[in-house]
Design brief:
Blueprint (H helix, E strand, L loop, with lengths): L3 H13 L4 H8 L3 E6 L2 E6 L2 H10 L1 H12 L4 E6 L38 H12 L8 E4 L6 H14 L4 E5 H13 L3 H9 L3 E5 L8 H16 L3 E6 L11 H7 L3 E4 L5 H15 L5 H10 L4 H18 L5 H11 L1 H4 L6 H12 L3 H5 L5 H18 L3 H7 L5 H17 L1 H14 L2
Parallel strand pairs: 2-3, 4-7, 4-8, 5-6, 6-7
Antiparallel strand pairs: 1-2
Helix pairs in contact: 1-4, 1-13, 5-6, 7-8, 11-12, 11-13, 13-14, 16-18, 16-21, 18-20, 19-20, 20-21
């Protein structure tokens, strides 16, 4: 007889591959299955705020996933747990008085799987942790969501701390909240001291500072103070600094003045290595055929791999069966097959979708024609390819007839600006994105 806890762990595995990392970790990661009686399934939450959010935003999705697992009608209820939940719960909602979170000790260099897609970023991160302020300063690591940027950022913090250096870690949201709170409560001196007294400052997801000029200015001055004192700055983002069009030019220049390195989508061998490491960590034995099936199907982020792995293990546990390819296929097919393979949206596919939308040929987008309609279509293609596939600018240039890096960058920056200011362009981009089901 499966327990509520076991059933809910399976549901969380399914939900993990359907939600963004921030939503899953903030609202679902620390929830627990409390009871399952009749058609009533109770999920425990760490606080009332999380309970309310789940009821309003995720109730229907949770119900759908649980019904697919239990194969019966279910009425989901959320309940605040009276007892303590696991430590380091991220479910507490961010607010102006929140402090920068501690370094996550689970994210170390030893637990990071190195492959061709992340080798340079890994080596640079390791060098920075051993010699802060000397090796690469600043170190800017960029890449898509769920590819390992945050893991490397925490690993730097852990290693540097072990080496006796003072480390402060903050997401850009936490940095912003601290800054706003310090102004409101007249603690700006305390704020400055807090962020400028570290030997190593790690700032995660800097792209969320876009559109916040005061926060950017504060980061700029913090950056200068630390840099001039030979202290290390580590920044992560979803794109290179020079493509962050809404970030102040001075700050963007500073962020890109050291080593800028990418964490790309893992290749097949790296994905297999990640899955094998997961087996070792969780003391789970999966046949190589099953691992190959997961690695071949999940070609996107590391988070996709982890979510698929957790779901398959949970299914096998609930069914009391040895994990097989058939079981894995059933588990992944029944939850979110579209989420398993984001790589089907390729640069070439986007180019054809843009051409079809504007009723032109893909070859005309690659040509030198400067007709207004073609220029706009070409630049929208640049923008969508960069935003949705994180394809390097040089590769986009080759895709579009051999255009140089600066031309591609200007095209991207133009559409990035127009998306915020021109409803017609925003609608064009939105319609093409919907057509691709991005």
């Amino acid at each position: 007889m499966r327990t509520a806890k076991e059933t809910w762990e399976a549901a969380k595995g399914a939900l993990q591959v359907q939600l963004t990392r921030s939503n899953f970790e903030t609202w679902l990661k620390e929830t627990v299955g409390i009871s399952h009686q009749g058609n009533r399934f109770v999920v425990g939450t760490p606080n009332a705020f999380a309970k309310e959010w789940l009821e309003k935003r995720l109730s229907s999705l949770v119900t759908k996933v649980l019904m697919s697992i239990l194969e019966e009608e279910v009425n989901v209820q959320f309940q605040v747990c009276s007892g303590p939940l696991p430590a380091e719960s991220p479910s507490e909602p961010p607010h102006p008085k929140s402090r920068p979170s501690a370094i996550n000790q689970r994210f170390t260099f030893g637990s990071f799987v190195v492959g061709g897609s992340n080798r340079l970023a890994f080596a640079a991160a390791l060098g920075v942790s051993e010699q802060p302020g000397r090796a690469y300063n600043p170190l800017f690591i960029y890449g898509g969501s769920g590819l390992g940027k945050t893991h490397l950022a925490h690993a730097i913090g852990n290693e540097a701390s072990e080496n006796g250096f003072r480390v402060i870690y903050a997401s850009s949201e936490q940095f912003t909240n601290e800054f706003v709170s310090s102004i409101r409560e007249k603690r700006t001196e305390e704020f400055r001291h807090k962020f400028r007294s570290a030997d190593v400052m790690v700032l995660d997801d800097v792209q969320f500072m876009i559109g916040k000029p005061q926060t950017q200015e504060t980061l700029f001055h913090t950056f200068n103070d630390l840099y001039d004192s030979d202290r290390q700055l580590v920044i992560t983002g979803d794109r290179p600094p020079q493509t962050m069009t809404s970030v102040d030019v001075s700050l963007s220049s500073r962020l890109g003045s050291g080593l800028v390195t990418e964490v790309a989508q893992p290749d097949l061998e790296t994905r297999l290595g990640i899955l094998r490491a997961k087996c070792e960590q969780q003391h789970v034995a999966l046949d190589e055929e099953v691992l190959n099936y997961i690695a071949t199907r999940c070609t996107g982020s590391v988070r996709d791999l982890h979510g698929a792995f957790n779901l398959i293990v949970a299914y096998a546990t609930l069914a009391r069966q040895i994990p097989t390819v058939d079981l894995a296929r059933h588990a992944l097919h029944d939850t979110a097959p579209a989420a398993m393979n984001p790589a089907v949206v390729t640069p070439a596919l986007i180019l054809h979708a843009v051409a079809e939308y504007f009723q032109v040929t893909p070859d005309s987008l690659k040509a030198k024609n400067r007709e207004h309609k073609l220029v706009l279509a070409r630049q929208i293609a640049i923008y969508l390819v960069r935003e949705r596939t994180n394809c390097p600018l040089q590769d986009i240039g080759r895709l579009l007839g051999g255009r140089d890096h600066s031309t591609i960058l200007r095209g991207y920056q133009r559409i990035a600006g127009l998306v915020n200011s021109d409803p017609a362009v925003r609608n064009n981009v939105s319609q093409i994105a919907k057509k691709l089901a991005l």
